[in-house]
Amino acid sequence: MSWFDFDWVDAFSDRAFGGNGCAVVHGGAALPQDVCMAYVRETSLVECTFTGPSDVADIRVRYYLASREIPFAGHPTIATVAAMRSRGMIQGDALTLETGAGIVSIHLDGEQIEMTQVAPQFGAYVPADLVAAAVSLPADAIISPPQMVSTGLPFCVTVLRDHDALRAAKLVEGPLRKVAEKAGFSGSDMAEPFLVTLRGATGAGDTFSRLLLAPPSPPEDPFTGSATGAMAAYLWKHGLMPKDTFIAEQGHDMGRPGQATVTRVGPPDAMTGIKVAGRGHVLMRGQVDLPEVLQ
Question: Could you report the per-residue pLDDT of 174-194, keeping only the tens digit for each?
Answer without folding.
Answer: 888 888 888 777 655 667 899
